[in-house]
Write a structure and sequence with these properties.
Elements (H helix, E strand, L loop, with lengths): L3 H23 L2 H25 L3 E2 L5 E2 L2 E2 H18 L9 H23 L2 E2 L13 H19 L7 H5 L1 H23 L5 H18 L12 H20 L7 H16 L1 H7 L2
Antiparallel strand pairs: 1-4, 2-3
Helix pairs in contact: 1-2, 1-3, 1-9, 2-3, 2-7, 3-4, 3-9, 4-5, 4-8, 4-9, 4-10, 5-7, 5-8, 9-10
Length: 279
């Protein structure tokens, strides 16, 4: 039976799902199908990646789909839904929004992954001193491309106003998302020499950040739902609170420092929503 930290982690994710589901149901079939497609995509990509790379395994959560916790697929769906809602309220050109989506997801993972493996949520099998405090650098590469490719695939037809947007866009997102993730997994694992992994990952993410900044994006030009704040906030808050209670986030203390930096970054990006919530 999973311990309390596992159960609370699942509960946080299902709360995020509830917030996304309420919004999606209010805003039409297209939004609902995008959310559900994101969850299906999340489960599929985890099953496929585990079998492609055999690089990590999950601990035992309450609800499992083979060897993948259902909550992980749900978490991918919620992250995809929230970051796309956020970027669609920005001034970024439509084609550039998947890049921002990928970077927004990394704001969560840079705080989450190294703490999660210390709770035993998943295990990369390399010890806690490997690369980024036990997390392979390639993991951050994968997080970026997972979000980027699904967002890119969905957006090809998403601006149409007919049934194609609602029913075909999720299918395209699934196909391009899975193909893109498996291809980039293979590239970083089997093609690029491991001595260049950190350089490759860092270069890609810096280029992505510079690309977004070059457009001098303005956010909240259109109203965005409060879930764009709550999804990252709940994850950051859980990791910080649970990490402090257990002491895990203090081993080493850098995890707390960087977690606070990522949390502060999220607060900064979403301060208009926070102001509206508490005004």
């Amino acid at each position: 039976m999973p311990n309390t930290y596992f159960i609370l982690f699942e509960l946080i994710i299902y709360i995020q799902f509830t917030l996304c589901l309420i919004h999606a149901r209010k805003h039409g079939a297209g939004n609902l199908l995008r959310l559900l497609a994101g969850i299906f995509f999340g489960v599929l990509l985890e099953l496929a990646t585990i079998r492609q790379l055999n690089a990590y395994e999950y601990g035992r959560f309450v609800i499992m789909v083979l060897d993948v916790p259902l909550c992980i697929g749900v978490a991918w769906g919620c992250i995809l839904y929230s970051v796309m809602e956020f970027s669609d309220g920005s001034s970024l050109p439509y084609f550039a929004r998947p890049v921002l989506d990928g970077l927004l997801a990394l704001n969560i993972d840079l705080a989450l992954d190294a703490v999660a493996i210390r709770f035993g949520f998943w295990d990369w099998g390399n010890g806690l001193e490997f690369q980024y405090f036990g997390v392979p650098y390639a993991n951050f590469w994968a997080w970026f491309w997972v979000i980027f490719f699904f967002s890119l695939g969905y957006r090809f037809l998403a601006r149409r106003t007919d049934w194609v947007s609602s029913w075909v866009s999720p299918i395209i997102a699934l196909v391009i998302g899975l193909a893109g993730v498996l291809a980039t997994n293979a590239l970083i694992t089997f093609v690029i020499p491991w001595t260049y992994t950190m350089l490759t990952v860092t270069t890609v993410l810096i280029v992505a950040l510079v690309f977004v900044i070059a457009y001098k994006p303005k956010f909240y030009l259109k109203p965005v739902p409060s879930l764009v704040f709550w999804v990252p906030f709940l994850t950051h808050a859980y990791i910080l609170i649970a990490g402090l209670i257990s002491g895990i986030i203090l081993d080493p203390p850098f995890l707390l420092t960087f977690g606070l930096i990522m949390f502060a970054t999220s607060i900064f990006l979403h301060h208009p929503t926070i102001k509206e919530l508490f005004s």
